[in-house]
Specification:
ten-stranded mixed beta sheet, 19 strands, alpha/beta, single chain
């Protein structure tokens, strides 16, 4: 019996679903809600704060990419917590936190971060944290190689400005199929030893001057393996189970931001992973149709740390004012951030890639002291031609002429404001102009450091 006849025969004895039932309502089997929070600019937009606001209503908070090169600050219940590798949802003690397979993990750094936050008052972190057994490890040799690469690039004037945390080299050995997963660390240690020796031989040949103390590293990781073991699991079935639970809320916390994305960012001045909504699926092992909401986080102005073009950068007293009022120094490196005006060209581009359902506009209060504010609305060539899209070539981006609109400032303190209607009139004009230019509603507005200093417009509509 051929395949078609067999299909027909089985169809005679079983009710066959109609096309409308089979192909409509693709999300019907997913009973959970998956909300993705991503940065819309060059990072440091305040993602951790919004995640912290959403986490109390969530059953699970996940990290899907990056490593401890990212940094989130959360101020809650009188405490200030710094997260680099840990999901910032750990501030909420009622939910599970997951580090997905797309993350690269520096185990010594992870345990150091746990210790720091436990001293600040967060308890039971290791009991509430699940780590994917498919995640790759960042070793000391990756970190040293990062520094060697950065020095080599700086000699030719192409310094990236990395955190030197070994993230790029770790993703590189992952792509070369020489990387080592968490599951391999927890398996047969003799097998892990051979893998590590092979990795070490490759790293020493690829990075002249790098010397690896293999026995010291093996001794260290034998201890780390037992400490991390209780937290490790196959997170794919864990997430699939959560997706099947009616009313379950899963929150995915992006690291870095879309303008640092390996493919869509300002290459080569980018990170080493996919930082947008697309990276959620590959970094956690969930289907695209499971994602129900994508929230973009943006500052009321623009910042960037490290090298690379920043079209709206301010090299004057206003840029310095934004840096000092906004505390614009990196959480991970403490490097001063470069500051500039809000760039709607960047936001439209990042929206086209991520498909935001809503935005959170943070640090509006930092603009309180300005008599006027500007928004970038277009890029033009030196000859005056308007660019149709955000340029892929850094050499083109370097020479764009930015077109701005100027709006009146509000010169009033917004930090005590808890309702949208209570904001100064000109502040509301600024917010609504951004909505108009980007084409996405702004739901949250940050007006201070504390977790309570956020206006949620959905509560007033």
């Amino acid at each position: 019996m051929n395949g078609n006849a067999d299909y027909q025969h089985r169809g005679d004895n079983h009710s066959k679903p109609s096309c409308s039932n089979r192909y409509s309502g693709a999300m019907s089997e997913n009973l959970a809600k998956v909300t993705v929070v991503v940065g819309t600019q060059w990072g440091d937009e305040g993602k951790g704060k919004i995640v912290d606001l959403l986490a109390p209503k969530c059953d699970m908070v996940c990290r899907c990419q990056g490593g401890n090169n990212a940094g989130h600050t959360v101020i809650a219940e009188g405490g200030e917590y710094f997260f680099h590798l840990l999901p910032s949802g750990l501030v909420n003690e009622s939910c599970i936190s997951v580090i997905g397979n797309g993350v690269v993990i520096d185990l010594p750094g992870l345990f150091g971060e746990i210790a720091v936050n436990e001293k600040k008052g967060l308890s039971g972190i290791e009991k509430r944290l699940k780590i994917s057994d498919r995640a790759h490890l960042v070793f000391k040799c990756h970190q040293e190689a990062d520094g060697i690469l950065e020095e080599l690039k700086s000699q030719s004037g192409n310094k990236i400005g990395t955190t030197k945390r070994g993230i790029g080299p770790a993703y590189s050995t992952k792509a070369n199929r020489l990387g080592i997963r968490v599951c391999q660390l927890l398996g047969d240690f003799d097998s892990f030893t051979e893998r590590f020796k092979m990795l070490s031989r490759y790293m020493e040949s690829a990075y002249p001057g790098l010397s690896i103390d293999i026995e010291d590293e093996l001794s260290r990781y034998k201890v780390l393996a037992e400490r991390v073991r209780p937290m490790v699991c196959d997170t794919v079935p864990l997430l699939q189970h959560q997706l099947s639970q009616k009313g379950c809320n899963i929150l995915v916390e992006g690291a870095n931001a879309i303008m640092l994305d390996l493919d869509f960012g300002t290459y080569p001045f980018v990170t080493s992973s996919n930082t947008g909504a697309g990276g959620v699926c590959t970094g956690l092992g969930i289907p695209p149709r499971a994602i129900t909401e994508v929230i973009g986080i943006c500052k009321a102005y623009t910042t960037r740390v490290g090298n690379g073009n920043l079209p709206t950068e301010l090299h004057d007293s206003i840029g310095e004012l934004l840096r000092e009022r906004g505390g614009e120094y990196g959480v991970t490196t403490r490097r001063p951030r470069r500051c500039g005006w809000f760039d709607s060209v960047v936001l439209r581009y990042s929206h086209a890639i991520n498909g935001y359902t809503s935005l959170a506009l943070t640090k509006l209060d930092i603009l309180d002291a300005l008599e006027e504010v500007k928004i970038a609305v277009a890029y033009r060539t030196q000859s005056g031609e308007q660019l149709k899209s955000f340029p892929s070539d850094e050499s083109v981006l370097e020479h764009v002429v930015v077109e701005y609109i100027t709006l009146p400032g509000w010169m009033a303190d917004t930090t005590n404001t808890n309702q949208y209607d209570s904001l100064p009139h000109n502040a509301k004009i600024y917010i609504e102009k951004i909505e108009e230019l980007v084409g996405v509603p702004i739901r949250w507005i940050g007006v201070g450091q504390d977790r309570k200093s956020v206006i949620d417009r959905s509560e007033e509509r």
